[in-house]
Specification:
CATH class of the domain at 133-228: Alpha Beta
Number of strands: 7
Shape: globular
Mean pLDDT: 79
Strand order of the largest sheet: 4-5-3-6-7
Low-confidence stretches: 1-33, 307-343
Bound molecules: FE2/S2 (inorganic) cluster
Helix content: 40-55%
Distance between the termini: 77 Å
Radius of gyration: 27 Å
Order of helices and strands: HEEHHHHEHEEEEHHHHHH
CATH topology of the domain at 133-228: Glutaredoxin
CATH superfamily of the domain at 133-228: Glutaredoxin
Length: 343
């Protein structure tokens, strides 16, 4: 197997992140990537009886990377490494091919059916060669209502492709695979588009078109927050757990003002979240909180006895559990006993 410049860059500490480092591809694994087989009923499958996959297309360098991934897990539990392993083979070939499945099965001691079952479950594992850029448009409820549906439709028409299809050859710089995605966990910036999982917030159809046109013309616009763009293969390698050591990636802001709005208000009001351990909270503070909590419980109990309600709804009243049932200790059981008696 020969390495593409893209892959080589990934193994040299992700150094070649300029657009000139985009993968000419085709040198790793099957030339141009073999496409998934379509079953008679129209489904795509990665398991091809006639071409079951060849783990040997991945050379010693990739096996060494696999060994690093497996070493992160307890001895004897190498199968737990399957998810990063799938990202690793995707970083080599741009998708999870039959060869990638065979390689993961070979290295982890799994069957190919077990690997394929996982690879086809998660949408981040691509079943066809992916372009230099994976453009994901959130069309979940919030983004969809705020313009995500129109953005996806506009980009689909502009690129002439549909879901999971690629404009241009995946082997070429500037190629774009389009997908619509469910919530991208950035609802506070809706509508959101990601490029190789980096965020472009508060998009409009115009800004999204501008973004895609820049990518196609060989530019890499800066994401709204997070690390600078890299190729799909390179981001797959990062997700496999190999650190992106570009200095600008390490210093890039991960959040923005909307994400931190709640924290800011809490700080202004002097609110503090309960801590989880004595190292962040003194014993006196624990005792103080425990006392306040008992006081609230006592107030609620008193209010319940007088028929007054202190909670905002019936849902925050104490549940009738066996522990709170006065007759729970009876031989026939408290609450069920009363139900049987019609009380
Ligand atoms: S709905 Fe789009 S990021 Fe959550």
């Amino acid at each position: 197997m020969s390495s593409t410049p893209d892959v080589a860059a990934g193994h040299a500490g992700m150094q070649d992140f300029g657009t000139g480092g985009a993968s000419p591809a085709g040198g790793v694994g099957p030339a141009g990537g073999d496409r998934p087989r379509r079953t008679p009923d129209g489904r795509l499958t990665l398991l091809d009886i006639e071409r079951p996959g060849n783990p040997d297309v991945f050379d010693q360098r990739v096996r060494d990377d696999a060994a690093q991934i497996i070493a992160r897990y307890p001895a004897g539990q190498s199968r737990s490494a399957l998810l990063p392993m799938l990202h690793l083979v995707q970083s080599e070939q741009g998708y999870v091919s039959p060869d990638g499945i065979a390689f993961c099965a070979d290295v982890l001691g799994l069957t190919k059916a077990q690997v394929a079952a996982v690879a086809t479950f998660y949408t981040m594992y691509k079943r066809q060669p992916t372009g230099e850029y994976l453009v994901s448009v959130c069309t979940n409820t919030l983004c969809g209502m705020l313009g995500g549906d129109e953005i996806y439709q506009t980009l689909s028409e502009l690129l002439g492709v549909g879901m999971n299809q690629t404009a241009g050859s995946p082997a070429e710089p500037g190629s774009i695979t389009l997908e619509h995605a469910e919530c991208l966990a950035a609802c506070d910036y809706a509508p959101v588009v990601t490029v190789n999982y980096e965020f472009f917030d508060n998009q409009t159809t115009e800004s999204a078109v501008g973004l895609v046109e820049q990518l196609r013309s060989g530019n890499r616009p800066a994401p709204t927050r997070g690390a600078p763009l890299c190729s799909f293969k390179q981001i797959s390698r990062q997700i496999a757990g190999f650190v992106d050591d570009r200095p600008e990636a390490r210093t890039a802001p991960a959040t923005g003002a909307p994400t931190e709005a709640g924290v800011t208000v809490a700080q202004q009001l002097g609110h503090r979240a309960p801590s989880y351990g004595p190292e962040t909270s003194s014993a006196a503070e624990h005792a103080e909180r425990a006392a306040a909590s008992s006081e609230r419980h006592a107030e609620r109990a008193a209010a319940n006895n007088t028929g007054a309600r202190t909670g905002s709804s019936a849902h925050d009243e104490p549940l009738q559990t066996s522990g709170s049932d006065p007759s729970a200790g009876s031989p026939t059981g408290g609450q069920s006993e009363r139900i049987e008696k019609g009380e």
